[in-house]
Design goal:
Layout: H1 2-38, H2 47-68, E1 79-81, H3 83-100, E2 104-108, E3 116-118, H4 120-137, E4 143-150, E5 154-160, H5 189-199, E6 203-209, E7 212-220
Parallel strand pairs: 2-4
Antiparallel strand pairs: 1-3, 4-5, 5-7, 6-7
Length: 221
């Protein structure tokens, strides 16, 4: 099942790579002209409309980036990194997301974890995607915990929420491209996480029940 999932992700990533450049070029041109026109004094009263159009173009560009991130042929720039340092670097951004929804993020970091080969940019994206999914699953004033730990063979990243758990009837579809339970979701967030993990030769597992869900990413030492 895991091989089939990764093959699907790779196919979508290759298709996106073939057309991504052609789509991004006109989007960039349109965005530039919108910014230029919106800076003119006689268009100031329409600033909110210009900002909306620009934000939608940015969202389109983000979706293209998610497609491109699915390919297993994408080259990860692996360097020795401390997973804790990456978590701490993006914690302020994650905290803003949580506070905007009246939720809390706790850190439980194992200070003794060894450095491992990671692509810092990709791991940032993986953490952001998993944390935002967890925040969306939780009720008002919910607490999400980010943990790191290790054993003799692995360094583990754990994202644990206190939501109501994943319904049994959709568990097998978790990580499948385009599958989403959100009204405005692309169904690519978790798919991107699985692709990033695969490029790092890491494994993603999750446990879920009525008290919440915990995603664990295990990296080889």
């Amino acid at each position: 099942m895991e091989i089939q999932r990764l093959d699907k992700l790779d196919l979508i990533g290759k298709m996106a790579a073939g057309i991504g450049h052609e789509i991004r070029n006109p989007l960039t041109t349109v965005r530039g002209y919108l910014q230029f026109i919106s800076s003119k004094e006689h268009f100031k009263e329409y600033a909110d409309k210009f900002n909306l159009m620009i934000s939608e173009l940015d969202r389109s560009n983000m979706i293209i980036s998610e497609f491109l991130a699915l390919s297993k042929n994408k080259v990860s720039r692996l360097e020795l990194n401390d997973l804790n340092v990456i978590v701490l670097a993006i914690y302020p951004l994650l905290e803003v997301d949580a506070l905007s929804e009246n939720k809390i993020i706790n850190l439980e970091l194992d200070r003794s974890i060894p450095t491992i080969n990671l692509d810092e940019s990709e791991i940032r994206q993986l953490i952001i995607n998993l944390v935002r999914n967890g925040l969306e699953a939780m009720p008002y004033k919910g607490v999400l915990t980010i943990k790191t730990r290790h054993d003799n063979q692995h360094v583990m990243l754990v994202i644990q929420d206190c939501g109501s758990g994943i319904p049994q009837n959709i568990i097998d579809q978790i990580g499948t491209p385009f599958f989403t339970t959100k009204d405005n979701g692309t169904g690519l967030g978790l798919s991107v996480c699985y692709s990033i993990a695969a490029r790092h030769k890491a494994l993603i597992d999750f446990k879920t029940d009525k008290s919440g869900t915990a995603f664990t990413v295990s990296f080889n030492i």
